[in-house]
Amino acid sequence: MSEPLLAVEGLTKRFGSFRAVDAAGFTVEAGALDALIGPNGAGKTTLFNTVSGLERPDEGHVRLAGRRIDGLPAHEVFAAGMARTFQIPRPFPEMTVLENVMLVPSGQSGERFWNNWLAPRTVRREEVRNRERAREIIAFCGLEAVMGDLARTLSGGQLKLLELARALIAEPRIILLDEPAAGVNPALMETLVEKIVALNVQGHAFLVIEHNMDLVMSLCRRIMVMAHGRLIYSGSAEGARRDPAVLDAYLGDVPE
Question: Domains plus CATH for the chain?
Answer without folding.
Answer: 6-91+155-251 (3.40.50.300), 98-153 (no CATH)
